[in-house]
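User: structure tokens for this one?
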Amino acid sequence: MHKITAASILKAAVFTAALALVPLKSAGADTEITLFGSTTVQPLAEKLGEAFEALHSDIMVTVGGGGSSVGVKAAGEGTADIGMASREVKESEFQEFPGIVVHTIARDGIAIVAHPGVSVSNLTVEQVRQIFSGEISNWSGVGGPNQVIVVIAREEGSGTRAAFEELVMDEALITSGAILLPSNGAVRTSVSTTPNSIAFLSFGYLDPSVRGLSIEGIEPSVSNAKTGIYPVVRPLNMITPGPAGGAAARFLEFIMSPDGQAIVSSEGYISVI
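Assistant:
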């Protein structure tokens, strides 16, 4: 029978304390993949994760939101296996996190959407810029009725907003009178229930509850975006702290496979293979 002594108790306590210092992430490095970031990429990542788990029952894929800036930071600081961003990674972010690696898994159009009751069906890029900057504040300014335009936009840090600002707004700022919302889903719900409203929205969130407006006569569709004639298209990126390894690498390989890209297309995004 083992004799319990003060020395053995101390030794056990030291061993237990040492175990507590081991990061939990390292223990499950090849059994769990964590992703955080863009709310545009989030539902797509969840679908891809479900399909991957069906093939690899020993690996769990955990997906959270927070926005594109959160995704870049999570990857850069190593608090997630993969960060998600629905925009280009900024040069300042590469400088802050020099080891990160960007994996473009899909492309996405940004649609200009309005409440279904809005009669205007087509805008120029310049008119969109003027509406979202507040220069045009009434639908009559773009051929519609004499009704005040309700501008709805994403909050700061959103990849959808950053891409919209880069591709459409140029140097103009989004009006301070805009209603700011935290996700594409919230934007869609708000536009669908707010008369005379307008917003920008990921193609992946388009449905009959909102009206997609043509830009320069081009309808917001995956086929038009894929051929390059629709003007507002951005990358959907997954970001790793360095070269991907282990389960994260296997997940990214699956995403870039024909089966993974078929899911990208089925969810309304543009495949990259």
